[in-house]
Amino acid sequence: MTDKKASLLIEGHDNVDFPIYEGTIGPDVIDVRSLTSKGFFTYDPGFVSTAACESKITYIDGNQGILLHRGYPIDQLASESDYLETCYLLLKGELPNKAQKEEFVETIRYHTMVHDQINNLFKGFRRDAHPMAIMCGVVGALSAFYHDTLDITDERQREISAMRLIAKIPTLAAMSYKYSIGQPFIYPDNELDYSANFLHMMFGTPCEKSNISPVLAKAMDRIFLLHADHEQNASTSTVRLTGSTGANPYACIAAGIAALWGPSHGGANEAVLEMLEEIGDESRIDEFVAKAKDKADPFRLMGFGHRVYKNFDPRAKVMKETADEVLKELGLEDDPLLKIAKRLEQIALEDPYFIEKKLYPNVDFYSGIILKALGIPTSMFTVIFAVGRTVGWISHWNEMISGDYRIGRPRQLYTGAPQRDFVKVEDR
Ligand code: CMC
User: How far apart, in whole angstroms, are the C-alpha atoms of residue 195 and residue 216?
Assistant: First the structure.
């Protein structure tokens, strides 16, 4: 807390003073909790001005394009670290030393297999089910399999559930894909690292040994790392809100997956590819750019713009480099869809509408391109985002449960009918 106070003058009422809190970095926060006792609520649809919690995990400065995990810049983590080390950092607050890292990696590696009866759950889904629909159901169902980690007041149980989720989510993600294409599930291979193992479970078959290129495994790892956490976004806030009721971690992560599914959030990378397919040819790009600029048309250029980043998305910068590496490795520079993407990026970066509104390609624009190049079907894009983000969700959930928290309960500005008497059906 600082000595500074904010004062609110409400016509016809006494002045109300509020304490101001100072974070390590970032804007100060006015504590308006006492306002309800004065008979008022704040009105902030979309929570654009509301800090819903205190957190030590991730810091974002959208105007400067800064993203820090536990203080470390995302570009340094992307170039110097790897996904599992970043998971350790997010979960525990510090980078691991060599021995801690080895132990963590081994623990995750040896918990990638899922309970065998989970296979039966998949059979209940229609063959053409969207993999995100399967993930919402199957991840929530983990709470029916791992009863030994449902006591959220036990720190050790919370830790085990975090490890389980990080270890098993790629296996479930790959299973949801295999199920949708009618291929047998592929067991994890504990010889492989986390990201290579995911590609092995996605693309391997029982008849052939999968041969995972290190460049592609590294690209996959970077996609997971760049999606690992993003402060209080819609899905993380959903996980916190769900967790604030005392719900178990698997149920909370399933809620996060559901929130991520929407095209304004994690569904954007899938929407990017669908848009590129709809454009279909470079000659139609101008038509789509015009549609995006037309206020009367709800169409938006998917993969452009961000609620928080208003200059550039620091994750997009690293993702773009990875996209170039992957396209080169796979010799895909001439792929027609990827050519449309490159041209669209160039046009939007030069167009005054996008420049004035600060609409830059975001992380999902490039991750969509990379995933397509890796041969991952569009329906799996958001699932992959969910795999990477699981550590962020569980870190925030754990941070909340470890501290003082209350059930989340936003208020409203009611504009419906005032109280009125019920009218019998024959009199209406
Ligand atoms: N194409 C065309 N116009 C756009 C776009 C776009 N992609 N994004 C925003 N605008 C316009 C919007 O019409 C509005 O114009 P005006 O001021 O004339 O009314 C202005 O820019 C501000 O838009 P907003 O909706 O108030 O901005 P927001 O901060 O609420 O929305 C967003 C952010 C990401 C939902 C939005 O930019 C969008 O819909 N982008 C496309 C979807 C997308 O790529 N989402 C992934 C986000 S990154 C992944 C993640 O972190 O989850």
Answer: 9
